[in-house]
Every structure is written in structure tokens, then in C-alpha cells.
Amino acid sequence: SGSFIWGAAPARFAESRDVVVIDLPGAAGTDFGSEALTMTVLSRHVLSVLDGLGVQAADYVGHDLGGLIG
After folding, report:
1. Contact 43, 26 (CB under 8 A)
2. Cα distance between the two ends of the chain
3. Are the beta carbons of 52 and 27 closer than 8 angstroms?
4. What is the DSSP code string of 34-60?
5. How far apart (Å, rounded) are the C-alpha atoms in residues 51 and 5?
6. How far is it, in rounded angstroms, from Cα 49 to Cα 7?
7. Long-range pairs for 9-18: beta carbons < 8 A, 24 or more residues apart
8. Torsion angle of C-alpha atoms 14, 17, 18, 22, degrees rounded to 10
9. What pLDDT does 15 receive?
10. Per-residue tens of pLDDT for the chain, all 70 residues
11. Which of 23, 15, 28 is nearest to 46 (CA)?
């Protein structure tokens, strides 16, 4: 999978809010290094991306495993 699974949805959401689309480590062939991909690790990855962008509050939408960590 990967962010492409969302198709046109991010553009539609962007009509009324800022949108950040994140591929989790290991998704769509992304590198995940040697660390085990636990729910905690994946959750921290999402928070790290949002923190890096200065996001203070967010609505979260996820697919498959991404939905579980929200």
C-alpha cells in the first residue's frame, strides 16, 4: 500500500483543511531500518512528522495498520 491508496481524497480534504499524507515506515517500499515496527514505533513516527511540521492539533485518518495507530 502507500499514500496512493487515498486517490483523490487528500485533495478533497484540502479544500477545507491542511492535509499531511504520511507513508509509515515499511509501507510502499519505504526504509524501516532494523527497528521492530511496533505500534509504539509507528505512532511515534506519525507524531514526529507532525511535530516537525509544527502541527498542534489534527484530525487523523488511517488505512489498515495506519488506522490502528491513530
Report:
1. no
2. 17
3. no
4. TS---HHHHHHHHHHHHHHTT--S---
5. 24
6. 21
7. 17/59
8. -70
9. 94
10. 567 778 888 899 999 999 998 888 877 677 777 778 889 988 998 999 999 999 999 998 888 888 888 7
11. 23
Length of the chain in terms of residues written: 70
Upper half-sphere CA count for residue 3 (Cβ side, 13 Å): 10
Amino acid at 62: G
Q: Give the pLDDT score at 18.
A: 92
| Cα–Cα dist 56/38, whole Å | 24
CA dist 64 and 53 (Å) reads 24
